Structures are given as structure tokens and as C-alpha cells.
Q: What sequence folds into this?
């Protein structure tokens, strides 16, 4: 959005030849990549459910429209209209209300008298109408004024920018700011259909029903009294067409009269009314509007961008539309047309004969197969047509994480959910532990590994240098890739927070940014250091968090207990959501136990940091072993505390019963858990772990093994005594007793297993991923994003609200 606004601010000062030269260069490169979606998108030809067909059983509709952008275009309105009348066609002209010309009311009256339609084209046609929600809302008031003044019911934005949610601010019956497919537009997201469709107002409910009843009554009243014109003659010089209003597009409509003023007493007649809509009609509550996408490439795209010298692409697309019975809606610009005796200096000119020959060809080839309708006719007959479900546009999502992607459950959960629904997901991560190539694809996600990860155990300077190197690598990669193909959204995972700034160029080019706070860096750093320098550093880290959060469009917090800290110092509540580390059932579905020996395996997997309390479990193992002789403690992971743990094992001579294994891919973890007997999470309550949520708890539960868990603030918030076996954090003796109890009491283990599975079923990622996907879509589409601070367990809602407040 920022880059778009910058361009349109600078556009008046950039020579037109230079602008077009640059656009042509990009268009030629893009043309090689879009053959499968342009000019024909096969899926767009599917008829909507309940499609009634065109008037009089015609095969397709031809809808002609024109955007009048400047004074030259205004001067060409009459010659263009006269050309169309000579061939028996009528069209709609969209005028810029506050552009470089003044719209003569005499011209509007002349067009209407001759059977044409007029509409509003943007407000200033300067590319700035959609720069913010508030700006559009204020501009809509001016646009509505001109709609009433001109007696218009249709709107089209400049440069085909659109936001269908925002367009409900306009007092219109239809909008024509979209297209079925056109990758050459500055906002290239097509609607994927060659049929008109209804765009309901949000929460319109009873209003929609009332308007529908009114429409039905109106149609019944029209049946016995109004004129019938559905199509114009298509050959020779014909009288002006009377523009039908309220045309019903059902196939039961009567035959089309060849006289423009013919009336019909048929009860199925289409209606005709040249009177402009009254202000009362325009001001009534609206339940929505009809969307009319253009379906034939724009003349500027064909003749200026792609340097076509004929109308062959129009003809090819038209033949396809005819075969599918759709709407051939063309947008041609009088500004670019050259009529006999009107040539002016400049390169961007199209001979009017191209357009005239195309219309004549339609008249000759499809004489009895089409209805030449005005946009308002199509709109008034399409109010009940719902948009045909079509393949959604694939989003291009980037993810940045200073972690090993292959073992990072949280990052993979997001990325694979996006990839499963068809988005193109690229992850930039550190080098992993499993020897994969630098670039690989894992479950549909494209992963690029950069530099190795630094350890917080070493010097702060060494850590900062390595992180800075990763920052520069990611920043360069994202900058290069965003120019090659723009991102829709970048999801950045901390630590550190400032990685969000690697997406600066993507943000300038319109990408939305999410900052995901896996950990609170100031609190984590304070847990590792003390003293004055630590306090100063913590203050700087809080500043870093605040600046990073401000740069992002949305912030995700990984548990509810951190909401108060983050919203109190860095970001407003309305800009954040909470997504805990829900288990992804796509990978953590129940597995079969394959181990047949009589050992009793206690399991921990994950990062080996001091706050995880793995050393406490090691110290408890002699007592556990004395009561449960075949018990063993297996550790899978690595981290800054790994060497301390190995030293402790040797010191206590526990090499035979405590084993540290390297990290394993995420796909193998469920099998490891299924072959264990108890999972243990012994976080220290007097450290960062007191308020840090652990993913592995629900991973244990997903495989039906009981969990022994330290009594921390975060875990008492999310889990109950019926779901886990709590012990006092830091108490080695109580930890050992809890492990022994679970290993020896079959009924307790069975009860914990059953309740754990139920907890996972209620709080799995399956329950939350739709909320995340909706968040992504709302951010990309610039819709309202509601702050999500809720949690799925009803009994915790009040506690959550208390914590957040």
C-alpha cells in the first residue's frame, strides 16, 4: 500500500513514455508466466448455482462500457456513442466527477436520451482513493453525491482498484471494478467468474429479505405495464434504444423486439424506464450490490502493454465466453481512440476502426445469440445470483524463523496449514540438523536454509554477530524475491524481535507483516543475566519489542499470560491475537506402540535450556530407578544447557539409564512418544519457564501417555489436576514420587491418558487453524481484524479476561 501511494504521488512527475516503457517491460516478462490463467481462466466459466440464463434464451450477454479518464476522452464520447449507435449497440460511460474535466450535464442528458447509461468513475482518478479506510469512507460521500446528481446507479474505480467490503459505503446497485482474470492489473486479484454475482452487505439478514420482497413486488407490478426491450438491433442505422430498467434475466423473458420503442403487454416483459433514480430510492437501506467483472481484456492492455495489432485476443476470449454462456463485458477507453480528423500527438492511440470492426464482427457472427445489455439491466436481473465457488487465489506467504524449521513445531504448523489450502509458502530458516540441501520442499513448503544458528550460551557479541548475519541474508533474500514476485504476507517468528525489519521492502510493496512472539525476549534475557548491565539491556530489548511490534501489522502472542505484559508496553490490544502451541493432528495423530520390551521409558524432547528443568529429572532418576528397576530417561534435543546435562549424568554415574539423543525430525516424534510410558516437563517456576507454554505437553497427550508436570503459573492456567500429575516445581523428591506413582499406578495412568486425549481433541490445531487462516486473509484483504484473546475452554474465559485486563 505504501509503495502504491508513493507511486501515485510521483506519477504526475514521471514522463508518460517512461511509465509505459517500464510497464511494457514488466508485461512482456509476465506474459510468459500467465498462459494458464490469461486471457482465459477455465474455472471462471462455471455457471453459478441456479443461473436463470439471459433474456429471451440468448446464449450470452454483451455489455459495453467506457472509462472517460481525461479531456480527450470527454471530447470523444459523442463520436464513440455515434459509432455504436450506427452499429445498433448501446453502452455505459463512466465519468470522473472531480478529475481534469467538468462533466457537462447536457452530455449526460444526450446520452440518456439516446439509450446509453452513465456511471461514476472513481472520484479524482489519481490512484489514491483506497489509501486508507477512512479516506475511502469520506470520499464515498462525494461519490454518492454525484451518483444522485447524475441519476447513476453504477460505479467503477480508477485503475481497477477494489475492496468489495468498502464498496458497501457507496449508494450503488452495481460495481464494475473487478475482472475474471487479469494479471496485468496493479491489483491483479480476479474474482474468477464470467458471470455477475451478488455481494451481500455484512450482517444484512432481515434487510436483504425485505429488499428481496420489494424486488418481487416491483417485478409483479412491472409485468403488466412497462416496455419490453432486452436487446438492440445489431445491423444498420437504428433508432435510439430505450434502456430497460429492472430487466429480469430469466429465460422465460419474451422475444426481443427489433423496434427500440416497442411495448408489450406480455406478463413476462422486461421493463423500461429512463427516469433517473430518485434520492429516496438511493437512500434506502441497502442489502448489497451486484458485481460486474469485465471479462474481455482492456483495450489499453492489448494495444499499449502487449502491442497487439489486431483484435484476435478479443475474438478468442469472446468465443470461449459464448461457449460457456457468460457475460462478455468490455471496457474500452475513448481517451485512447482516434476518430477520423481527431488525431493528436502521442503514441498511445488506437484507431476507432479496431473497435468498430470488432462490434461489426459480433453483429455478423452472433446475430441471434446475444443480448446487448446495459450494466444496470444486468445488475437488476442478477440480485439473486450468488457467486460461483471457484478456486481461491493462491497467496504468496513468506516466513522467517531463526530456528531449525524441521524441528520447529509452531512454525511448521502455520506453514503447512497454508500450504495445504493451496498457498505458496516460502520459509527462510537457519541450517538444520538433518543434512537437507540448502533448498528443499517439505510437505509443500519451500524451505531455504541460511547460516547456522548461534547459541545464547556464548558471548553476547558472538550471538549478535551471527544473528546480524542471518538478518542481512534474509533481508537480501526477501528484497530480491519481492521484486521478482510480490509477497502477500510475511510471518516473522522471534527470537529476535527485530527480524521483522528484514521484510522492509516486502512491506513497501504491500505485503502485510505478522510478528509472532514465541518468547518474550526481555524476560528471557533477564532470566539468564543479572545486575545493572542486565537491567539496561532489558530496557533496550523492551524498546526493540515496541518498535518491532509497531512495524508489524499484527502481533501474535503465544500464551494468554503474556498478553498483559505485551499490551501494556508495546502494542494495543486490538492489534494482537493469542495462538498457543496447539498440537497439529495432521502429524500428531495416535500411533501404534511398537516397543515390546519391559523397560519403562520416561521421555523429554525439545530445547535443552536451564529453565526446562531437565537436570531436575536426571537428579530424580536414582530414586525412581530404585523403585522401578527397568526405568530409563530418554532425552531428545540440543541447546545451550546440553553440556551441563552430560556432565551431570557422568557425575551421577547414570550413563546406563539417562541417554541424550540428537534432535529428530518432527515426523518421528509421535512414534517416540507412543513408545514411551510417561512424558515429563519439569520447568522451573522461579524462572522464565513459569509463564512459558510448552508444546510438548499436548504432544504427549496426543499419543495417550500420561504427563508429569511442574506446578507453574502457565500450566495451572491451561491444565487441570484431572489431566496431568502436578508436582512442586524444583522439588526433586516430589518429582521422583510423581514419576513413580504414574509408572506404578495403572488406573492413574489410564485416567490421565484418557483425559489428556480429550484435552487434545478439544484444543487441537484443527480447532484453531481456521482462525489463523482467516487472520491471514483479513490482513491481506485489508479487512477488519478482530483481536482474538479468547481460549477454547469456557471455564477459563473469565480468567483470560482478568489476565488481559
A:
Amino acid at each position: 500500500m505504501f509503495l502504491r501511494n508513493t507511486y501515485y504521488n510521483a506519477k504526475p512527475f514521471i514522463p508518460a513514455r517512461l511509465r509505459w516503457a517500464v510497464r511494457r517491460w514488466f508485461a512482456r516478462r509476465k506474459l510468459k508466466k500467465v498462459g494458464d490463467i490469461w486471457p482465459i481462466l477455465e474455472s471462471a466459466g462455471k455457471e453459478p448455482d441456479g443461473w436463470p440464463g439471459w433474456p429471451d434464451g440468448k446464449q450470452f450477454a454483451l455489455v459495453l462500457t467506457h472509462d472517460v479518464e481525461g479531456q480527450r476522452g470527454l471530447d470523444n464520447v459523442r463520436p464513440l456513442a455515434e459509432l455504436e449507435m450506427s452499429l445498433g449497440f448501446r453502452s455505459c460511460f463512466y465519468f470522473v466527477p472531480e478529475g481534469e474535466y467538468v462533466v457537462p450535464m447536457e452530455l449526460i442528458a444526450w446520452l440518456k436520451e439516446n439509450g446509453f447509461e452513465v456511471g461514476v468513475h472513481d472520484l479524482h482518478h489519481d490512484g489514491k482513493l483506497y489509501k486508507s479506510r477512512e479516506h475511502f469512507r469520506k470520499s464515498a460521500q462525494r461519490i454518492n453525491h454525484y451518483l444522485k446528481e447524475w441519476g447513476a446507479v453504477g460505479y467503477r474505480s480508477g485503475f481497477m482498484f477494489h475492496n468489495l467490503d468498502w464498496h458497501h459505503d457507496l449508494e450503488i446497485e452495481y460495481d464494475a471494478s473487478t475482472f475474471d482474470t487479469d494479471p496485468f492489473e496493479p491489483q491483479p486479484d480476479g474474482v474468477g467468474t464470467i458471470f455477475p454475482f451478488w455481494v451481500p452487505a455484512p450482517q444484512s439478514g432481515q434487510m436483504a429479505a425485505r429488499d428481496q420482497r420489494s424486488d418481487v413486488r416491483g417485478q409483479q407490478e412491472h409485468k403488466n405495464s412497462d416496455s419490453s426491450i432486452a436487446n438492440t438491433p445489431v445491423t444498420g442505422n437504428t433508432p435510439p434504444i430505450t434502456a430497460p430498467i429492472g430487466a429480469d434475466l430469466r429465460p422465460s423473458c419474451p422475444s426481443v423486439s427489433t423496434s427500440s420503442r416497442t411495448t408489450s403487454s406480455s406478463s413476462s416483459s422486461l421493463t423500461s424506464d429512463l427516469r433517473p433514480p430518485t434520492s429516496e430510492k438511493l437512500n434506502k437501506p441497502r442489502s448489497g450490490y451486484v458485481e460486474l467483472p469485465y471479462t474481455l481484456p482492456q483495450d489499453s492492455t492489448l494495444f499499449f502493454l502487449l502491442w497487439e495489432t489486431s483484435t484476435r485476443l478479443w475474438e478468442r476470449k469472446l468465443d470461449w465466453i459464448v461457449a460457456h454462456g457468460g457475460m462478455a463485458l468490455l471496457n474500452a477507453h475513448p481517451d485512447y481512440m482516434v476518430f477520423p480528423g481527431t488525431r493528436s500527438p502521442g503514441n498511445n492511440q488506437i484507431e476507432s476502426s479496431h473497435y468498430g470492426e470488432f462490434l461489426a464482427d459480433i453483429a455478423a457472427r452472433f446475430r441471434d445469440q446475444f443480448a446487448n445489455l446495459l450494466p444496470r439491466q444486468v445488475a437488476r436481473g442478477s440480485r439473486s445470483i450468488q457467486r460461483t465457488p471457484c478456486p481461491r487465489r493462491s497467496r504468496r506467504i513468506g516466513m522467517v524463523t531463526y530456528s531449525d524449521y524441521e524441528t520447529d513445531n509452531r512454525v511448521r504448523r502455520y506453514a503447512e496449514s497454508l500450504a495445504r489450502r493451496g498457498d505458496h509458502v516460502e520459509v527462510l530458516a537457519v541450517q538444520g540438523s538433518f543434512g537437507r540441501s540448502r533448498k528443499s520442499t517439505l510437505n509443500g513448503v519451500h524451505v531455504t536454509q541460511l547460516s547456522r544458528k548461534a547459541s545464547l550460551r556464548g558471548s553476547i557479541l558472538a550471538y549478535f554477530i551471527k544473528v546480524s548475519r542471518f538478518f542481512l541474508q534474509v533481508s537480501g533474500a526477501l528484497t530480491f524475491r519481492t521484486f521478482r514476485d510480490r509477497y502477500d504476507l510475511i510471518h516473522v517468528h522471534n527470537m529476535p524481535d527485530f527480524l521483522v525489519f528484514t521484510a522492509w521492502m516486502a512491506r513497501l510493496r504491500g505485503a502485510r507483516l505478522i510478528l509472532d512472539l514465541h518468547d518474550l525476549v526481555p524476560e528471557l534475557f533477564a532470566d539468564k543475566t543479572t545486575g545493572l548491565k542486565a537491567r539496561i539491556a532489558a530496557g533496550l530489548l523492551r524498546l526493540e519489542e515496541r518498535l518491532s511490534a509497531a512495524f508489524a501489522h499484527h502481533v501474535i502472542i503465544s500464551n494468554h499470560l503474556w498478553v498483559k505484559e505485551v499490551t501494556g508496553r508495546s502494542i494495543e490490544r486490538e492489534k494482537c491475537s493469542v495462538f498457543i502451541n496447539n498440537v497439529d493432528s495432521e502429524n500428531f495423530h495416535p500411533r501404534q506402540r511398537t516397543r515390546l520390551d519391559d523397560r519403562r521409558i520416561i521421555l523429554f524432547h525439545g530445547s535443552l535450556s536451564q529453565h526446562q528443568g531437565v537436570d531436575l529429572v536426571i537428579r530424580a532418576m536414582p530414586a525412581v530407578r530404585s523403585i522401578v528397576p527397568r526405568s530409563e530417561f530418554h532425552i531428545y534435543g540440543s541447546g545451550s544447557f546440553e553440556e551441563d546435562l552430560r556432565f551431570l549424568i557422568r557425575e551421577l554415574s547414570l550413563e546406563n539409564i539417562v541417554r541424550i539423543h540428537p534432535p529428530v525430525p518432527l515426523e518421528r516424534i509421535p512414534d517416540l512418544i507412543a513408545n514411551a510410558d510417561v512424558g515429563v516437563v519439569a520447568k522451573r517456576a522461579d524462572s522464565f519457564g513459569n509463564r512459558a507454554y510448552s508444546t510438548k505437553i499436548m504432544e504427549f497427550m496426543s499419543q495417550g501417555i500420561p504427563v508429569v508436570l511442574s506446578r507453574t503459573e502457565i500450566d495451572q492456567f491451561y491444565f487441570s489436576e484431572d489431566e496431568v500429575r502436578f508436582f512442586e516445581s524444583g522439588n526433586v523428591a516430589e518429582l521422583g514420587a510423581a514419576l513413580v506413582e504414574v509408572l506404578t499406578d495403572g488406573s492413574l495412568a489410564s485416567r490421565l491418558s484418557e483425559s489428556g486425549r480429550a484435552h487434545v481433541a478439544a484444543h487441537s490445531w484443527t480447532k484453531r487453524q481456521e482462525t489463523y487462516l482467516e487472520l491471514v486473509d483479513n490482513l491481506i484483504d485489508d479487512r477488519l481484524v478482530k483481536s482474538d484473546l479468547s481460549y477454547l475452554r469456557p471455564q477459563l474465559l473469565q480468567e483470560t479476561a482478568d489476565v488481559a485486563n
In short: Confidence is low (pLDDT under 50) at residues 204-285, 791-805. The chain is about 40% helix and 15% strand. Residues 460-484 form the longest helix (25 residues).
